[in-house]
Design goal:
alpha/beta; Enolase-like, domain 1; TIM Barrel; 2 domains; five-stranded parallel beta sheet; about 35% helix
C-alpha cells in the first residue's frame, strides 16, 4: 500500500470554511503575508496555510471571502480531485503559476487535518510511521553587501547551529575562509534555478568552483547548469548537487540534468498531498535522500512541515527551523536541533 493510499479513503465532512490573514515584517523590509484556511465540519476544524508570496493575492482572497464550493461529504481523495478542478484564485489569476500549488497545499493540508480529526486519528498513525526528532538548519542570506554577521550573530547565542546559506558572487576570500572556519555550513544555495524573481542570483561558474572546493562536505543546491562552463565547474562535485525550486513532482526529479542523491521536497511546491506522498515513496524506493524546506510560514503551516519531516526525513538538513531563528539576533530559549516532533494526538498538526 502506498503512503497516499493510507489516507485517500478517509471520510471528510465539510460544512464551510473561513480565512484568516497573518502578516509579519521581516528584516529585509519585506512584509510577509499568508492565509490560514480553516475547514469546518462535524464539530471539528482542520487548518492549513496558503504560503503564496504575493501579498496582494492574500488580500484579494480574504476580501473575496470563502466562496469556493467545498461543502459536502467526501473522501479525502474525492475532495482532492474536486479541489483540483476549481479555480482557487477566483479574485484574479496569480502572478506566478506555482502559487496555484501553494494555495492548493493550504486547502489540502487543512482537509487532511480535518479528515484525521473527524476520524480521531493522527497522521503518524494513519501512515504507520513513528515521528522522530527533527534535525534542522537555519537558512540565511548574508546581506547586501555580504558580511559574516548573519552567521556570527546567531552562533553567538546558539553555537551549535547549522546553516544553509544563499551564496552570491560577492563573497570574497576572507568571508569564505571565515565560514569554513566556523564549521557550521551544511548547505549552499546558489539560487540558480530562479529566473525573474527577487532572489535571482547571477550564474558565475568560477564562483561555483570556489564554493564547491571550499566546502567539500556541503550540499550544493540549485546551481544553474545551463552553460558548459557551469557544468564543468561542478562536474567533480555532482554527487553533492541537489534541487529545490524546480521540484514540483516526481517527473521534475527525473528531468534534472544531475540525478540527486538527496532532494528538497517542499510540500507547498507539490500542491497536492497525493503528489507529495508519492514523492516520499519514490525517494524511499530509489534510496534517494530527502529533506524539507519552508516557505516562511507564519502559522500552522510551519508545524505541519516539521511534522512531515519528523515522519519522512528527520535526520536530514531540514530547512525548517522554528520561528525566531530568522532574526539576526535571535532571542534566548529557542528550541535546539534536533527538534522534538510533538505532534498533536489527532490530526495533522504539531503542538505550538
Amino acid at each position: 500500500m502506498s503512503t497516499y493510499d493510507r489516507v485517500a479513503e478517509l471520510p471528510l465532512e465539510i460544512e464551510g470554511y473561513s480565512l484568516e490573514g497573518l502578516t509579519k515584517a521581516v528584516s529585509s523590509g519585506f512584509e510577509r503575508l499568508t492565509t490560514v484556511i480553516r475547514l469546518h465540519g462535524a464539530g471539528e476544524e482542520g487548518a492549513g496555510e496558503d504560503v503564496t508570496y504575493e501579498g496582494d493575492d492574500h488580500v484579494a482572497q480574504q476580501e473575496h471571502g470563502p466562496v469556493l464550493p467545498l461543502a459536502g461529504s467526501w473522501t479525502f481523495e474525492s475532495f482532492s480531485q474536486h479541489l483540483g478542478e476549481l479555480d482557487t484564485f477566483p479574485a484574479g489569476a496569480p502572478k506566478m503559476p506555482v502559487y496555484r500549488n501553494y494555495r492548493r497545499w493550504g486547502f489540502e493540508s487543512a482537509a487532511l487535518d480535518l479528515a484525521l480529526r473527524q476520524a480521531g486519528r493522527s497522521l503518524a498513525g494513519a501512515v504507520g510511521r513513528e515521528p522522530r526528532p527533527i534535525t534542522f538548519v537555519v537558512s540565511s542570506r548574508m546581506g547586501e553587501p555580504s558580511t559574516l554577521g548573519p552567521v556570527t550573530s546567531r552562533l553567538a547565542r546558539y553555537p551549535e547551529l547549522r546553516f544553509k546559506l544563499d551564496a552570491t558572487p560577492d563573497w570574497d576570500d576572507s568571508l569564505i575562509a571565515a565560514l569554513v572556519e566556523s564549521g557550521a555550513v551544511d548547505s549552499i544555495d546558489f539560487k540558480g534555478a530562479y529566473k525573474g524573481t527577487p532572489v535571482d542570483v547571477e550564474t558565475d561558474p568560477a564562483f561555483y568552483r570556489r564554493i564547491a572546493e571550499a566546502f567539500p562536505d556541503a550540499w550544493l543546491e540549485d546551481p544553474d547548469l545551463e552553460s558548459d562552463e557551469a557544468r564543468s565547474a561542478l562536474a567533480p562535485h555532482n554527487d553533492r548537487i541537489t534541487w529545490d525550486a524546480p521540484i514540483h513532482s516526481i517527473d521534475d526529479i527525473l528531468a534534472q540534468l544531475i540525478m540527486p542523491r538527496t532532494v528538497n521536497l517542499k510540500p507547498s511546491r507539490f500542491g497536492s498531498v497525493h503528489a507529495l506522498f508519492d514523492a516520499y515513496d519514490f525517494c524511499e524506493q530509489r534510496g534517494m535522500g530527502a529533506y524539507g524546506g519552508g516557505q516562511y510560514e507564519l502559522g500552522v503551516g510551519r508545524g505541519q512541515i516539521q511534522y512531515l519531516a519528523a515522519l519522512f526525513h528527520p535526520d536530514a538538513p531540514n530547512d525548517i527551523a522554528p520561528a525566531g531563528y530568522d532574526a539576526l539576533d535571535p532571542e534566548p530559549g529557542l528550541p535546539p536541533s534536533p527538534l522534538a516532533p510533538e505532534p498533536e494526538p489527532i490530526g495533522f498538526r504539531r503542538r505550538p
